[in-house]
Predict the structure.
Amino acid sequence: MKKILLVEDDPNLGMLLQDYLQLKGKFDVVLCTDGDEGLKAFSKQSFDLCILDVMMPKKDGFTLGKDIRKVNQNVPIIFATAKAMMEDKASAYDLGGDDYITKPFRIEELLLRINALLKRVSSKETASEPAQTQFEIGNYKFDYTTQLIHFDGKQQKLSTKEAELLQLLCLKKNTVLTREEALLSIWHDDNYFNGRSMDVFLSKLRKYLKEDPKVEILNVHGKGYKLLIN
């Protein structure tokens, strides 16, 4: 039975989600009502997925997600919030979130997203040939596993989404990575908001790699992007 950490400060909604996911999803759901309680539960138990409300007392969901990522880089995280601004969605993905659902939402939709995330995790774990994780980008060295870029004795820590995007660019080095391919691979949806979020991450990657003039991330008009190493 898969175990889910649900952190929701609304007790009525929390109990409703817990009961539904246990009954319909056949999950073991641990319910916490604030961020501090959620972090304590995560540090003591092993979870297959986390659902974090963003607006909570003591420790908000984004801060909790950041703390969880310090402990576990891979556990899937879904952020749930009434805030629907694109900046909030970008923050959720930048902190290592895997999905973002806006309140109010149908519980059935949440269950579908949970199952989709768990299926993707299972597929990655059973993949016969693991993807390359070590790359040389001009004078930079990029380690996808640790999410670190090394250059001239310094290192830059990447968010999960930044690392995933840079890995795709490296795997397609000097060839075009289509915008649709990147969005579907990382965000699993090529909608407008995810596209805007990806543009933010591309700008950050360009900033991280700017010290080596031989390295460029080019926009290929009407197609996508190219990591060019001269």
Remarks:
- The two ends are 50 Å apart (CA to CA).
- The chain has a mean pLDDT of 89.
- DSSP finds eight helices and twelve strands in the chain.
